[in-house]
Amino acid sequence: MHPGSVVRQECLEKHGLSVTEAARVLGVDRQTLSNLLNARSGISPEMAIRLEKAFGLPAREWLIRQLDHELAEAMQKAEGIDVQPLAGTPDDRQGAHERG
């Protein structure tokens, strides 16, 4: 779930705020908040601080939710990420480099 959905449910709906009212509380313009709520943008560190100050949930928690969401999206594409595993131990690799 995109963290904007959580902001909508836990902050706006829970407190009976419109997007315009919540944007004013957060000190951002309506479009900025709308972009977050509609999953067109994520929670930045600054927005996380604003959410903490306005609604109480620690900024770190908002950022963890954002990171979890981004990681889940990336994991859906993991099969298409081509990386060759690094073989051996650091000592093995150092010896191979010195030999040649």
Automatic annotation (TrEMBL):
**Ranges of biased composition (kind: Basic and acidic residues):** 90-100
Q: Kindly list any coiled-coil regions of this protein.
A: none
Q: Does the keyword Transmembrane helix apply?
A: no
InterPro entries, per database record? Cro/C1-type_HTH, Lambda_DNA-bd_dom_sf, Toxin_antidote_HigA
Arranged from A to Z, the UniProt key words for this protein are: DNA-binding
Residues forming the HTH cro/C1-type domain are: 13-62
Instruction: Cite the residue spans of the region called Disordered.
Output: 78-100
Enumerate the Pfam families for this protein: HTH_3
Question: One GO MF term, please?
Answer: DNA binding
Which PROSITE patterns does the annotation name?
Answer: HTH_CROC1
Q: Which PANTHER family match?
A: ANTITOXIN HIGA-1
NCBIfam families associated with the record: antidote_HigA
- Name-wise, this protein is HigA family addiction module antidote protein
UniProt lineage: Bacteria, Pseudomonadati, Pseudomonadota, Alphaproteobacteria, Hyphomicrobiales
